[in-house]
Amino acid sequence: MSYTKKRYLVYIFITILTVTLPFITIDNNHILLLSFDKLQFHFFGFVYNVNELYVMPFLLMFLFIGIFAMTAIFGRVWCGWACPQTIFRTIYRDLIESTILDMRRIKNKQKDIDYSKKSNLLKKYISIFLWLIITIVISTNFMWYFVPPEDFFLYMQTPSEHMFMIIFILSIAIFLVYDIVFMKENFCVYICPYSRIQSVLYDDNTKQIVYDTTRGGDVYVNREKSIFKMKEWSSNEECTTCEACVKICPTNIDIRKGLQVECINCLECSDACSIVMGKLGKKSLINWESTNSVINKKISTLLTKRNMTYFVSLILCIILAIVFASKKEPFLLNINKTTNLYKIKEDQKVTNNYILTFHNTQNKAYTFDIKLEDSENFRIKRFKPFKLEPNKRIKKIFIVETKKRLFISKTKDTPLKIKINSFALENKEIMLSKELSFVYPRSDLIK
Fold first, then answer.
1. Which of 302, 339, 377, 387 is the most exposed place for a label (fewest CB within 10 A)?
2. pLDDT tier at 227, thresholds 50, 70, 90
3. CA atoms of 306 and 201, how far apart (whole Å)
4. pLDDT digits 0-9 by tens, 338-364
């Protein structure tokens, strides 16, 4: 099977996965969702509030280190096999323009379409219209990773109340029309920063698109093209200079010149060379291999010091993400003191006032209550159990009082640590322990 067919299968798989992923849930929680509406991050069925995104840094570290590791080992495999830009260009150029509307030859991607013909001009407008419809679907699918489908379709019943969401979708769609139809591969060549950092991540063990000069001969000498004549060729120079690899390249490069930042690792040049060389009973002169294995004829290995560093770093990110994710709290509780540090009553009782903010992150409503561990010296006033609906917040006044004479200092107020346990009456496993600071006045203020 050619690399092109393999890429198309990967594109189909990625498309199906991307479209269906927002609809997959575990216990009514999404696989992947960053909800700005509810200030939540869903990851494989776990829900993290915006206040507990301590797992996010490790996921981002894993993402960036993973991109560097993937590039160092497999070259720009992302660009040719998974990048949305490449997939969208393939859909527009190879499917709409070439296959459906027959505007260009699929084996020659360098020849511009002749728009002097009225038929081609009409087809151009048709292709843009078809692509616009597809981009609206793509933009809507993108929105589902921020607004879950169940909420999205509910919001769409009253579109006038959600104009920002609609404008966002249309803006993305219009950008994709401009990007894919007019900017084309120039986005990969001139704008995408990934192409600029790839060369510093490569070494002789990196899998990349390599033209085998030991078989085909040096078409370029010091980046200047040699003028080939049949009588000047030696017997080992197998390149026929048919230029098939050049014509089919979507970024308009000649891979025989060597590694170039414009190369997106699509391997269409390798497929074109395989067809030509196959007629001669030979293998392709262009391979997806490392420089060591193709040019230097050495065994290429994954277990280099650099790659091992990447692997260890990725494993550490996964372990740390799991460790921090396991510390997810069953609900959120923030404790803040009021402006008054304390109050001394006429009967010499000392009270401290607090504002408690509860956030029920569970999918069920629960009744929450609080108890003090040191119930001998302190007691709670003006607080009763309350019911809180799922994904709702509430603020409660919380007063702690003591009638004990805790004479600790004559010159300054003393903060004391008190441990409180907050729990759900319906399920005692939903429990959270917190420490609060109880400020006790200096002894000369107590009669």
1. 339
2. very low
3. 10
4. 878 888 887 778 899 998 889 887 778
